[in-house]
Amino acid sequence: METALYESIIFGPIHSRRLGISLGINLLPAEGKICSFNCIYCECGYNEERKGGKFPSREDVYKALEAKLVLLKQQGIEPNVFTFAGNGEPTLNPHFPQVIDDTIILRDKYFPNAKISVLSNSTQILKDSVFNALKKVDNNILKIDSAFIDTIKLIDDPNQPDYNIDRIVDRMAQFKGEVIVQTMILRGEHNGKVVDNSTDEQINALIKLYKLIAPKQVMIYSLDRPTPEDKLIKVEKPELQKIADRINAEGIFTTVS
């Protein structure tokens, strides 16, 4: 399937099925993708297909965001949320902590009722600077797609050889509940291997991790956009809801999107 990149620092606003009217902020290169995962379901494609470029500077992000907020004010459009997403992992931008501070200032100036969300694959939260920046945002949304390292390597393909899910979970727990966990549920095939993190074994193991993290919310979702692997299957909403009901029964607030 054909995937696509975001071609500017600011994009949207778009309607997000999880967050409402969302103004996107891309801290990755406009001409390429930089990510610490290489997910088989990424709408931006595989890392090796999208190599590039230069991170936008703190100053460039500030100018682009303020210009867009001024325009939205003039148009009478009020975003519900500013969402850091884009062409890869936003927390890889070396200016990420400073950009968060700037965004809070601009949000408070132009749209004080809007939330600030960060969609992250969690790989950088072991860095104190990233951890502390994420503590400042309204929606700290961190990914865990499986409790099993073999499944993580199959679905998410971390490019850190020392990636350790236990260390990530321990760090997530240090947010003291101020974290949302996001999990993609999917099936299919990749490189001749079966992909399925919807099984009882997978969900039970995820529930154990969720309990250790104690997040304020778990979001589960499935495919909605083109993916680089064309042998993936969307898990439909009724089945997702049954999975959410199981997780909710364990005392963990879970939503489906």
Description:
The structure is a single chain. The chain has 257 residues and is of the alpha/beta class. The chain has 7 helices and 11 strands. It has helices at residues 58-75, 96-110, 128-134, 149-155, 165-173, 200-213, 237-249; strands spanning 10-16, 20-26, 81-85, 115-120, 139-143, 180-184, 186-190, 193-196, 217-221, 232-234, 254-256. The strands form 2 sheets. It has an 8-stranded mixed beta sheet. A 3-stranded antiparallel beta sheet has the order 8-7-10, with helices on one face. It is globular and about 50 Å long. The two termini are 22 Å apart. The relative contact order is 0.14. The mean pLDDT is 94.
List the helices and strands and how they pair.
Elements: E1 10-16, E2 20-26, H1 58-75, E3 81-85, H2 96-110, E4 115-120, H3 128-134, E5 139-143, H4 149-155, H5 165-173, E6 180-184, E7 186-190, E8 193-196, H6 200-213, E9 217-221, E10 232-234, H7 237-249, E11 254-256
Parallel strand pairs: 2-3, 3-4, 4-5, 5-6, 6-9, 9-11
Antiparallel strand pairs: 1-2, 7-8, 7-10
Helix pairs in contact: 1-2, 2-3
